[in-house]
Write a structure and sequence with these properties.
Helix content: 25-40%
Largest sheet: 7 strands, mixed
Oligomer: single chain
Number of strands: 7
Distance between the termini: 39 Å
Strand content: 15-25%
């Protein structure tokens, strides 16, 4: 590996990856995207972070690895089996709150709360309830989504949903966005 692709992983990644593979879960975040998330959360000391779509905790581990001592992360998923893997490897971290709930309902419950960074890696907060999710950002807060470049596991018609999402973000007043044709395709939106 050359120096640009050799990334120092958080210590929990090996165990999470093993258990994820044994479970057969194949919708994990790209390592480059995870490393990028770690860098972004490190830029927000004492920040409050929200991850929509925990999966087995691979991206969660990277986010935790970048957080300052007083930062807090809430991660949500609706699949108990996946969250059991996450909890087995990360559940003792006192900076982490793990929520097993319906994402749409939970976003509604968060109304009035504010976050410094939101990573939306599932339908709620990305393809559903996007305006409500963006309202949860503090000024200067970052909204990050991935899988914006064509993925082999996309269902029929998903390309149109991606295009509509991008158009919505591009036309949202109060946000500046950057689209990156890198890794799985990343968009970063900043609330101004």
């Amino acid at each position: 590996m050359d120096e640009m692709t050799n990334i120092c992983e958080p210590s929990a990644i090996k165990g999470i990856s093993h258990d994820t593979e044994a479970h057969g879960f194949g919708m994990c975040s790209n390592t480059l995207v995870c490393s990028f998330l770690r860098t972004l959360v490190a830029s927000k000391p004492n920040g409050k972070f929200l991850e929509l779509g925990s999966g087995t905790g691979l991206s969660t581990a990277w986010i935790l690895d970048g957080m300052s001592r007083n930062a807090q992360l809430t991660t949500i998923d609706n699949t108990p089996d996946l969250l059991n893997i996450l909890r087995a490897h990360l559940g003792l971290d006192n900076q982490l709150t793990v929520v097993c709930a319906d994402g749409d309902e939970y976003i509604h419950e968060l109304k009035g709360k504010q976050f410094d960074l939101i990573f939306a890696d599932t339908w709620p907060g990305k393809y559903r309830l996007l305006p409500e999710t963006l309202d949860l950002l503090n000024p200067g807060g970052l909204y990050i989504i991935d899988d914006m470049l064509h993925q082999p596991n996309w269902p029929e018609g998903h390309e149109e949903k991606v295009s509509a999402l991008i158009t919505f973000l591009e036309s949202s007043p109060g946000f500046k966005i950057t689209k990156m044709a890198w890794a799985s395709g990343v968009i970063v939106a900043t609330k101004v």
